[in-house]
Amino acid sequence: MPDEHRTGSMELENADQFQVDYYDDDISLIKIEDGLEYLLVPDQDKLPEWLGPDAVKDRTVIELPADSIYMAASSGMDLINAVGGLDSVIMTSTDAKDWAIPEIKEAVEKDAIHYIGKYSAPDYEALVEEDADLAIESTMIYHSPQVKEEIEELGIPVLVERSSYENDPLGRLEWIKLYGLLLGKEKEAAEFFDEAASKIAEVDTDSVKNTPSVAFFSVNSNGSVVVRKPGDYVTKMIETAGGSYALDDISGEEDNALSTMNMQMEAFYDKAVNADILIYNSAIESDLSSADDLIALAGQFADFKAVRNGDVWCTNKNVFQKTTGAADMITEMNRIFCGADDDSGMEYFHKLR
Q1: Domains 3-198 and 206-352 in one fold
Q2: SS3 category, 280
Q3: Domain boundaries, the chain
Q4: Strands annotated E in 72-165
Q5: Which numeric CATH code is attached to 3-198?
């Protein structure tokens, strides 16, 4: 892209998985950390001469504003909703029964947003009939690369977003600015982000005594314990709320880009048996309603300090879909770490008794 036509860049405070450069004639260039680039233009058929043929080479061209979006990246739907852009989404790969956000669940139930099948097997005819002008996928699409290729062959640009790869909760939230750009709602996006950042800055970690150690996990159908890798945005939320991650020395045991890893129960026991607080992730596995439900998954949990002390919590189903809730999640974690004995008024966590 010609530097002489560059007018500036998007101001990003925490996100490091994307960047945006602005150019003359309302043109923008998104660069994603995986190497993909997206050229945003007001009219694909009337590109300014200064762009030249190389500007569109090896880049996905997206005409703005996008108003007929196929949203296969479920975590981004909440960001779109937060800036008032839900009307621009016409299709999703998540069925109504799997949505935990009321407004989105209702929109899918009423078919205002059409469910067209899982991301790995979408209804291609529906994409054509509904005249989708943009498909937004998570990196899960790389497990089904032929789907991305087929959508692009239909003439629909595909943007693969990486918000889940951000190591900072505010970095994940800052993707709202990218969605604001796509929807012509940059001002709304910036205001939402600034308000959330201010709320997180006000969390009173001084009120937390003795920095409790916290294990965040779930148990899968094979009996393995699924934990967050140290340094990912969930563990950063724990630290921001005034806690410490009980498994902060397990990095490197699984060498991949995922933010989670599996542990055998015996290994998890060794690391977390003395954790002050347990938080069970029901967003991935089945919900729990009592500490007995946890013990039923593995009898060893009866020995855990947090179970014996009655300090076991469970996430609600909306924790990962409600991307905009980072500030409130951290605030609720802070309340837990300060010794809360009940979950009244909490949106993202409930206590197991």
Answers
A1: yes
A2: strand
A3: 3-198, 206-352
A4: 89-92, 114-115, 134-137, 158-160
A5: 3.40.50.1980
Per CATH, the number for 206-352 is 3.40.50.1980
With helix as H, strand as E and coil as C, how does the chain read?
CCHHHEEEECCCCCCCCEEEEEECCCEEEEEECCCCEEEEECCCCCCCHHHCHHHCCCCEEEECCCCCEEECCHHHHHHHHHCCCHHHEEEECCCHHHCCCHHHHHHHHCCCCEECCCCCCCCHHHHHHCCCCEEEECHHHHHCHHHHHHHHHCCCCEEECCHHHCCCHHHHHCCHHHHHHHHCCHHHHHHHHHHHHHHHHCCCHHHCCCCCEEEEEEECCCCCEEEECCCCHHHHHHHHCCCEECCCCCCCCCCCCCCEEEECHHHHHHHHCCCCEEEECCCCCCCCCCHHHHHHHCHHHHHCHHHHCCCEEEECCCCCCCHHHHHHHHHHHHHHHCCCCCCCCCCCEEEEC
Per residue of the chain (353 residues), what is the pLDDT tens digit? 889 999 999 999 999 999 999 999 999 999 999 899 999 999 999 999 999 888 888 899 999 999 999 999 998 999 999 999 999 999 999 999 999 999 999 999 999 999 999 999 999 999 999 999 999 999 999 999 999 999 999 999 999 999 989 999 999 999 999 999 999 999 999 999 999 999 999 999 999 989 999 999 999 989 999 999 998 999 999 999 999 999 998 865 444 556 889 999 999 999 999 999 999 998 776 789 899 999 999 999 999 999 999 999 999 988 888 999 999 999 999 999 999 999 999 999 999 99
Strands 60-63 and 89-92 turn out to be: unpaired
**Which amino acid, one-letter code, is at 350?**
H
